[in-house]
Every structure is written in C-alpha cells, then in structure tokens.
Amino acid sequence: MSPPQALPTASSLTDAGIAHAATNSNTASNTTMKNGSSTNGNGASPLAGLDASKVITTLTSNPRPVPEPNAPEVFAQKTCTDHMITASWDAERGWHTPELKPYGPFTLMPTASCLHYATECFEGMKLYRGWDGRLRLFRPDRNTARFLTSAQRIALPAFEPSEVEKLVAKLCAVDGPKWLPKGREGQFLYVRPTMIADDEALGVNVPKKALLFVILCFFPNLDVSIPGAVEIKKPGLKLLASREDSIRAWPGGFGSAKLGANYGPSLIAQGEARSMGYDQVLWLLGKEADVTEAGASNFFVVWRTKEGKLQLITAPLDEKIILDGVTRRSVLELARTRLPNGWSGSDVPQDEQLEPIEVIERKFTMADILEAVDDGRLLEAFAAGTAFFIAPVSLIHFRGRDIDIPLAAGDSGKYAKTIKTWLKNIMYGKENHEWGVVIQEENIAPQ
C-alpha cells in the first residue's frame, strides 16, 4: 500500500487559486501579445491589456478652488482634485480605454460584488512638490507592483503595473500644477489608485467586471500632528498594544495585501485607542504577543543585543501577516547600504553620529521588548508608512504597563531621524535619486 499523500496546506491552496484566477484575467501567465493584450488562457480570442497610451482626456468645465495648506478641508480628507482616471474591465473584452475625466461619483448596482464580498483593493502614494520646484512620485513602481499582488489576491483582473504607473503620472501631470503649485514646496497630495469589482451578479463568484480608478486627495501631514488624538506632553506616537482576542492578520491570511477588508475590522480598536489618549494600535499576534504592525504602518525597534551588537529589527514578510510597505522596504535598503559602518555625514550633528547597525527581519515579541527596556538596551522605536511616514514611538501601553521609549534626538530617535531625513531629501528633490520619479507637468488652459 502506498503511503497517504499529505493534504495541501491552506497557503498552497490560496497560491494555487491565485494562479488559476490569474490565468483567466490576462496576467503574466497568459500569452502576451505585442499590442499589450493577452489570451484568456485557452487559446481563445485575446483580451485587451491595460494601455495608458490610449487614455481619453476630458477636462472639467467646473474647476474648483484649491484649499490652503492648513484649511479644515485638508484635515477632513474629503477634498480631491478636478479630475480622476478610470478604466473598466470585463471578462469578455479585457481592459477598456482609460479615461481622464472630471472628478465625480460612480454609479453602482446594489448587487455590486464590492458591496457584498469586499472585492476591493487600493494603494497609497504621494505626489510631492520638491524644494527644486518639480513634482515627484516616490518609487511608484513598487506601489503598482503591490497593487497587482493585492488585485490577484481577491480575484480582480491583472494588468501591467507600468501601465498603472503611467496613468498615475498622467493624472499628476494634469492636476499637480494647479493643486500643488509652485510656492508650495515641501508639500504633497495623496494618491489613491483603487480597484473594485462592479459586477452586478450577486452570486459568490469570481467577478466578471471591475473598475480601476485613480484620485488625488488632500491629506494632513500625519508625521507632524495627528488630528483627533488626545495630546500628551511627550512627543512621538503613543501605541496601545492589542489584546489577545483582537487580531488584525494571521499566517496564510491576507494581511500582506492592501485590501479594504483589512481596515474596516480594525476601526473599533483604533477608535478605542484614540478615546484613551493613544494614537494607534500596536497589533500583536498569538499567546507569545508577536509584534506585527503599528496601526496600518510597519513597526521598527532599535536595540542592543545582550552581547552589545546594535540592531534594527522589524517583523518578516514570510508568513504574509504584514504589508510589504514601500516605506518599510526603503528604510531597510537605506539602513543596509548606508549604515553598516555607521554614519558621520554632514547631515548628522556631531553629537548624533550613528554607530554601525545590523538590519534584521525576524519575529520578535513584547517579552523581547520588555526585556530590552528593563535591561536598558532599547534605544528607539518608530512606525513607517506612506500616511504616517517615519513616526517615532515614545510610549507603548501593554497589559497595564506604560513602556517609555527613549527619544535620544529630542522628538525622535537618532536612527529614525536620520533615515527620515534621507527619505525626505529623495522625495523632495534635495538628493538626486532613482527613487524620486519626476513628473513632467502639463499646464492645461483654464476651463
């Protein structure tokens, strides 16, 4: 008798399902044609690929005023620019011609898949007005690649990430000059590419229709002030550690995809934290209280090992619990390339020279943090993401204990401060770097 075969794991079933869905929605596993289209996986007529070069532009006839940088509508996070990008997809044709058109509401049937089955994913990016007067995006190729990963995770259609990047750039080129004008150097607009399934069939099935859209929105600078939070004198984020029965993501789940389904269930915990005077939730997992993310941001600590080695630690990606953050990736790459021998550059004051640091991606627990605090080995902690950017953490409340985190540079840790400076220099054009993608502005005539 042959030995019984092992059952497939949940993770392998998920991966297989994603691959199967990809084959039927013109992904890289299909046969790509020269015109950007692809077959539907069985040799039938080709599906049209997403093609940004064909975008149809219709400018608004009702332009709206641009709010001042600190106006109430900026903090309300409801004000968008004059235009948006849309592109429809269906299972028979593939991608339709993209449009740049006036910003406005959509029409959805009450049975739309996204309203019932959370078939929605999105990205978060920023358009920066550099100190040199130019508009830039920061590593948009990483956002659009992750956008594809998220879409595939929930059976939405695939696309060539570079085509979405071109559509984002087009909208930024048209609306950026007016809504983020010269004279507002050092400021940004929030960029939100989104895809929803607008298939009107109510059955629980892979969607046969989808809508991709891109908008630009005013957003407050969250790494400086956090609207709605109760002020506590010490600067830095104050985090409330999640309870054991409150879980944001789990191994083999979908925490690694940027889905709306990840955010709604976390809002109660976030509201509770805010009502108690904390800025965000520090999400823990399991009885060991593995540290995962801070709100919707990646979380880092700087500590010394018991042997005295300095380390920058963050949770790993291998179990698909946390998001592969673009800011996270950038922090790790900068630390690995610029800090292995320490840093004594002109951008760091003499009393803030940085020691060499080892960069580690691995599991760590609240017990590890507590031990490091009690031993005097924890030097700093910070959150990293597009919205909060690099936000130093000054306090963690865990199981009835307030854990004070040092801020060696006054309002930040030394490493967080230096890495944040490097990133800002790239984003705002003070450092010429391949991560800062310049947008060629289109100065359209007033309507």
UniProtKB/TrEMBL annotation:
<feature type="region of interest" description="Disordered">
    <location>
        <begin position="22"/>
        <end position="48"/>
    </location>
</feature>
<keyword id="KW-0032">Aminotransferase</keyword>
<keyword id="KW-0028">Amino-acid biosynthesis</keyword>
<dbReference type="InterPro" id="IPR001544">
    <property type="entry name" value="Aminotrans_IV"/>
</dbReference>
<dbReference type="Pfam" id="PF01063">
    <property type="entry name" value="Aminotran_4"/>
</dbReference>
<dbReference type="InterPro" id="IPR018300">
    <property type="entry name" value="Aminotrans_IV_CS"/>
</dbReference>
<dbReference type="InterPro" id="IPR043132">
    <property type="entry name" value="BCAT-like_C"/>
</dbReference>
<feature type="compositionally biased region" description="Low complexity">
    <location>
        <begin position="22"/>
        <end position="32"/>
    </location>
</feature>
<keyword id="KW-0100">Branched-chain amino acid biosynthesis</keyword>
<dbReference type="InterPro" id="IPR043131">
    <property type="entry name" value="BCAT-like_N"/>
</dbReference>
<keyword id="KW-0808">Transferase</keyword>
<comment type="similarity">
    <text>Belongs to the class-IV pyridoxal-phosphate-dependent aminotransferase family.</text>
</comment>
<feature type="compositionally biased region" description="Polar residues">
    <location>
        <begin position="33"/>
        <end position="43"/>
    </location>
</feature>
<keyword id="KW-0663">Pyridoxal phosphate</keyword>
<protein>
    <recommendedName>
        <fullName>Branched-chain-amino-acid aminotransferase</fullName>
        <ecNumber>2.6.1.42</ecNumber>
    </recommendedName>
</protein>
<dbReference type="InterPro" id="IPR036038">
    <property type="entry name" value="Aminotransferase-like"/>
</dbReference>
<dbReference type="InterPro" id="IPR005786">
    <property type="entry name" value="B_amino_transII"/>
</dbReference>
